[in-house]
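Re: that backbone. Tokens:
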């Protein structure tokens, strides 16, 4: 898959003097239709509301052997996430990005396979999509630090991969969810992705998702995905989806349909036709998130 991460070409290899270095540790996923970025975020644990429970960037204090110690920190946090037997080497260090007098060390761990992660409220480290940071500003209901949001909003090059041949930017995927009441189903979906179901009587089987995290909380288990939304908005006048296969094919030929219900509903609001425009990110048990 042909892409370039422009930010990597705008970094300095020299050590920028700072008391604290924030870590932009990223993974470029290339198994779907388009490549996209995820970033490791550190979650401040719940502590009886003494400090705010939110996602921040990992950091390291200024010290000798800064790059070596940064790579060691990444290795240790990956083990914390359950990603054992991974090799971290110096080639993953890409340089330092400076913004607003703050230093950010970039570490590329794209060679590591990270799918099917089980994450709970007590998980200290999560992989997070740029659109979760910029648009949703939350991950599974947990806030993202305002300084992190500001960094990504004011520096869009952090989030973007470029198609070299077409000289255009790849679109960013959005986060979507499915729910189920069986751990085996949740684990299967985390490994292999969502499966086609016949969720409505009016049409056949498609891949269905929910856009909002709160609409999926009626389920015991939650799967989280990255989805490239390629389609138009359909306004449903009833409480359930009523398009037929024929009308879907004729009126909505794109890869997905965004469904907007006029009445409040817990029904899925994304219909997807093709498997390659979504990828599993993580799965969760509801009781471990709330």
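Recovered sequence:
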């Amino acid at each position: 898959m042909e892409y370039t991460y422009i930010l990597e070409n705008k970094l300095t290899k020299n050590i920028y003097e700072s008391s604290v270095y924030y870590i932009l540790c990223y993974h470029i996923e290339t198994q779907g239709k388009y490549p996209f970025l995820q970033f490791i975020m550190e979650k401040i644990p719940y502590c009886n509301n003494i400090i705010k429970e939110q996602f921040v960037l990992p950091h390291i204090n200024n010290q000798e052997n800064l790059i070596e110690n940064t790579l060691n920190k990444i290795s240790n946090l990956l083990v914390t996430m359950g990603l054992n037997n991974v090799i971290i080497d110096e080639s993953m260090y890409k340089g330092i990005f400076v913004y607003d007098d703050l230093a950010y060390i970039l570490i590329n761990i794209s060679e590591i396979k990270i799918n099917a992660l089980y994450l709970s409220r007590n998980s200290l480290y999560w992989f997070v999509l740029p659109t979760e940071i910029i648009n949703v500003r939350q991950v599974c209901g947990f806030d993202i630090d305002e300084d992190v949001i500001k960094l990504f909003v004011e520096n869009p090059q952090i989030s973007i991969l470029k198609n070299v041949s077409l000289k255009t930017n790849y679109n960013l995927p959005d986060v979507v969810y499915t729910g189920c009441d069986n751990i085996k189903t949740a684990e299967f979906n985390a490994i292999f992705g969502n499966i086609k179901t016949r969720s409505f009587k009016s049409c056949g089987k498609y891949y269905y998702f929910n856009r909002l995290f709160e609409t999926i909380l009626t389920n015991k288990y939650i799967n989280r995905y990255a989805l490239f939304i390629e389609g138009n908005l359909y306004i449903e006048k009833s409480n359930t989806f009523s398009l037929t296969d024929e009308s879907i094919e004729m009126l909505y030929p794109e890869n997905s349909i965004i469904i907007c219900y006029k009445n409040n509903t817990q029904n899925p609001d994304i219909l997807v036709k093709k498997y390659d425009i979504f990828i599993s990110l993580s799965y969760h048990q509801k009781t471990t998130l709330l």
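Residues 174-288 form one domain. The first strand starts at residue 20 and ends at 29.
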